[in-house]
Automatic annotation (TrEMBL):
Belongs to the ATP phosphoribosyltransferase family. Long subfamily. PANTHER family: ATP PHOSPHORIBOSYLTRANSFERASE, ATP PHOSPHORIBOSYLTRANSFERASE ATP-PRTASE. The keyword Transferase applies. This is ATP phosphoribosyltransferase. Gene3D superfamilies: 3.30.70.120, Periplasmic binding protein-like II. Signal peptide: none annotated. One of its GO terms (cellular component) is cytoplasm. Its EC number is 2.4.2.17. Keywords: Amino-acid biosynthesis, ATP-binding, Cytoplasm, Glycosyltransferase, Histidine biosynthesis, Magnesium, Metal-binding, Nucleotide-binding, Transferase. Its main location: cytoplasm.
Amino acid sequence: MLRVAVPNKGALSEAAMEILKEAGYLQRRDRKELVLVDEENGVEFFYLRPKDVAIYVGQGIIDLGITGRDLFDDAQVTTGAEEVMGLGFGRATFRLAAPQGRFTSEQDLAGKRIATTYDGLLEGWFAQQQIPVEVVHLDGAVESAVRLGVADAIADVVETGNTLKAAGMETFGTPILESEAILISATGERSSVGDQNGADRLIRRLQGVLTARHYVMMEYDVRRTDLDAVTAVTPGLESPTISSLADENWVAVRSMVPAKKTNQLMDELYELGARAILVTSIKASRV
Ligand SMILES: Nc1ncnc2c1ncn2[C@@H]1O[C@H](COP(=O)(O)OP(=O)(O)OP(=O)(O)O)[C@@H](O)[C@H]1O
Ligand SMILES: O=P(O)(O)OC[C@H]1O[C@H](OP(=O)(O)OP(=O)(O)O)[C@H](O)[C@@H]1O
Ligand SMILES: [Mg+2]
C-alpha cells in the first residue's frame, strides 16, 4: 500500500487535506487521528509534523509527503527524497529581518548572531554566500530575539509581513527562499511496483486538481479568416478544439486558458473578431 505523509497541524495542514480530498482521497475527520487507511485508493495516510515529513520520506519509510519547500531544505535530506511539484498553497518567503534601519544587506551580518527556527536552511545559505555568521536556534517567536538581546538579526517565514511590522522590524537583503507547499517523493528503491503505480496516480491526480484550479475553459466563435490570429492567443494545453458551425464562414473554438488571464484574453479575442466568448470553470481534470 502506498504511504503518504500529510502535515498534522500548522499553516499547511488544512490546505494539504483539502487538495487530497479534491483529488478523491479519504481524509481524516478527527484531528487526533494519526493514520488513516483509504482502502479504495490503496493509500495509507500518516499525519506527521510538517518538519518531520522530509525525514520519513528521505529514509524511504514513507513514499510521498506534503511539506514546505523551506522545511524540506531545512531538514537537509540531500539524498533519498526529492521535490516532485509545487502545490500552489502555503506560499511564503524566507527572509532576513532586523529592527528598522539597522542593516541593508546580508554582507552586514558577517560575524553577527542570527536567530531562526530554520537553522539548517540558514547555515546552508550563509555558507553558500561565504559570509561567516553565528546561527542561534530558537523554537518560535523569533521576532523577540533581537529586542531580548539573544541575536542581532533574525531569519523567518514572511507571509503578510504583519508579524514583523508589529515587532518594529523590516526585511533586508536577498530573499533566501521562495517557499510553498510541495510534494516530495522517496527516490530510493520502492517496495513494490504497485506502490509506484499508486504514486504515479496520486501525482497525476494532484496535477489534475492544480490544473482545474488554475485554468478555465474558454469558448468562442470566430470567422475562419481570423482563426490563426485568435488561436495564437489561446493555444490551449495541447491544441485548441475547432468545430464547424452552421454558417461555414465561422468556427467555434474551445481552449483551456490560465484563470488569472481570463479578462485580458477576452478583451484581446474580442478585438481580434471573436464573438460569443464564454468562460466556464473546470471541476476536475486529468492532463
Ligand atoms: N504565515 C505563515 N506562517 C508560518 N508558516 C507559513 C505561513 N505561510 C506559509 N507557511 C509555511 O508553512 C510551513 C510552516 O508550517 P507550520 O506553521 O506548521 O510550522 P511551524 O511554524 O514550525 O509550526 P508551529 O507554529 O506549529 O510550531 C512552512 O513551509 C512555511 O513556509
Ligand atoms: O508575515 P506574517 O503573515 O505575519 O506571517 C509570518 C509569521 O507567522 C509564523 O509564525 P507562527 O504564527 O507560526 O508562530 P511561530 O513563530 O511560533 O511558529 C512565522 O514564524 C512568522 O512569525
Ligand atoms: Mg508556526
